[in-house]
Amino acid sequence: MMTMEYHNPVLLKETVDGLNVKPDGIYVDVTFGGGGHSREILKRLGDNGRLFAFDHDEDALKNTINDLRFTLINENFRYIKRFLRLYGIRQVDGVLADFGVSSHQFDVPGRGFSTRFEANLDMRMNQRSKLSAFHVVNDYDEEQLRQVFAQYGELRAAPAMARLIVDKRQEAPIVTSEQLKLVLKKFLPSRHENKVLAQIYQAIRIEVNQEIEVLKEFLLQTPELLVKGGRLSFISYHSLEDRLVKRFIRNGMFEGEPERDMFGNFEVPLKKVGGLITPSEEEVKTNNRARSAKLRIAEKL
């Protein structure tokens, strides 16, 4: 029974349709959250189908589904192969992922994910993790901070922001979101304040949760994990994620191009299915989180 308030899953039908669910197949939802996508997969599975889900946020465990076909694993999906093997699973028919922060995490002020609330600097998706936004802001040196803001926030003022944070925290630690906002106020033009703040928060959040490293580790495991004809159905929310997913589907790698044979051909483990899918205007009106969502589907060759 779902006991916590989670918002509607994004691109629900399109994402699960992308898996091409077989009634007796084995599927994995690596971003369980409120369980919306998992419930839709279970509707399409028969008695012999299996669904495994991953979520390292302990809040998500309160939404677990009472179904013999379902298993919820309280771990990061970067360890997908390791934990599936504990259940005797070496290959699956499909993997679904809805990357990014859940609506619930944004809506709980104390988690520190949202620019809307005054909160302690936290931003940990896994509340057992030792690295928090407080540690990034107060313990990283100037060069580390510059890299975080430049790489993950794509902020042109990254060097100046890093320098100012290092100067200000010598007077007193920067503990709350409001304090961070005051420190960086000169970089927040009134017309674009929310946009720049969102970029700053995104950068710190990605670093805290090691989101890019986690995504790369996960993607590299998927070709071996899928059976031939198995599907990936992935929703991304920012260009850094989407670029990695797109390149991996196209080239089987994140940088450069695969080696070609003497005829100019190259082999890759996946092929894309259809084109990029984005939410309808109607869905965006009813679910604001969907506005930047991009769905890509791939199949194992």
TrEMBL record:
| Catalytic activity as recorded in UniProt | cytidine(1402) in 16S rRNA + S-adenosyl-L-methionine = N(4)-methylcytidine(1402) in 16S rRNA + S-adenosyl-L-homocysteine + H(+)
- A Pfam family this chain is assigned to: Methyltransf_5
Q: Name one GO biological process term.
A: rRNA base methylation
Q: What EC number(s) would the UniProt record show?
A: 2.1.1.199
Task: List cellular component terms (GO).
Answer: cytoplasm
Name where it's found. Cytoplasm
- EC class name: transferase
- Methyltransferase among the record's keywords? yes
Supply the InterPro entries for this chain: RsmH, SAM-dep_MeTrfase_MraW_recog, SAM-dependent_MTases_sf
Top-rank lineage group of the source organism: Bacteria
* Gene3D superfamilies named among the record's database cross-references: Putative methyltransferase TM0872, insert domain (1.10.150.170), Vaccinia Virus protein VP39 (3.40.50.150)
TM ranges? none
Residues that bind S-adenosyl-L-methionine: 35-37, 55, 77, 98, 105
Its chief place of residence is: cytoplasm
Molecular function per GO: rRNA (cytosine-N4-)-methyltransferase activity
Going by the UniProt record, its keywords in alphabetical order are: Cytoplasm, Methyltransferase, rRNA processing, S-adenosyl-L-methionine, Transferase
Q: What NCBIfam families does its record include?
A: 16S rRNA (cytosine(1402)-N(4))-methyltransferase RsmH (TIGR00006)
Q: Which family does it belong to?
A: Belongs to the methyltransferase superfamily. RsmH family.
Q: What is this protein called in UniProt?
A: Ribosomal RNA small subunit methyltransferase H
This protein's species is Seonamhaeicola aphaedonensis
